[in-house]
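Holo prediction. Input below; ligand is phosphoenolpyruvate.
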Amino acid sequence: MRSKIVVGNWKLNGSLAANDSLLKALLKEVPTGGSAACAVCVPYAYLAQARDVLKGSAIGWGSQDCSRFDQGAYTGEVSAKMVAEFGSRHAIVGHSERRTVFGDTDAIVVEKYAAAKKAGLAPIFCVGETLEEREKGATESVLARQVDALLAKGASALEGGIVAYEPVWAIGTGKTATSAQAQEAQAFIRGRIAAKAKELAARLPILYGGSVKAANAAELFAMPDVDGGLIGGASLVAQEFVSIWRSADRLSKG
Ligand code: PEP
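Structure of the complex:
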């Protein structure tokens, strides 16, 4: 059985003072030896703070993006190797906000994923359809295109990575996918990968993201192909995030 993973995506939020109280509240509530993994993906500027507060705990940390480049004349970029130097566990790549606001194409996302893997991180590869795509029945073709971009590098690219299904219409909108919608999409993603690498697909963590809260986490995470969540807004509220993690932990214990 795959154990569950809960990852917070803080987006462009936080301050040294606010992070300190949030991280310390998480530290108190997420014990070592839990069955579900827990991590927070923070703005680059706060990686050192996350490391300093969380080191030695059960909670991992990481970034919300990384450069596709290793080094050089790329003003404003942060390489995956730099992210890894802070002891990070993850880098999110291909979040829909990066795809839509910052123009990350499938090809760029795959390069970022490869850079994160090369740096020893477990990249979180986000995919998902817009509302318009869902309404015109294009959900599966969009997911197939996004997943195939990575599979084109060889299915082994997914080894050590994590996929997050995040329907764009559910991110930050308060409109959560039903557990049946999440399961259907995530079974499709796993099946697509299984066609190339059956055993790897069976082990691959696939998270759901999109308005997950304490009130809906258990139902979503109970789905057979939902291995936890990528949590935006609710990850900024310690009790809410901890309670989401507890749902995952209970389900991981079986
Ligand atoms: C996200 O940022 O990945 C996300 C899922 O956001 P929210 O939980 O706020 O919808």
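The pocket of phosphoenolpyruvate is lined by residues 9, 11, 95, 166, 171-172, 209-212, 230-234 (CB under 6 Å). That is the main takeaway for now.
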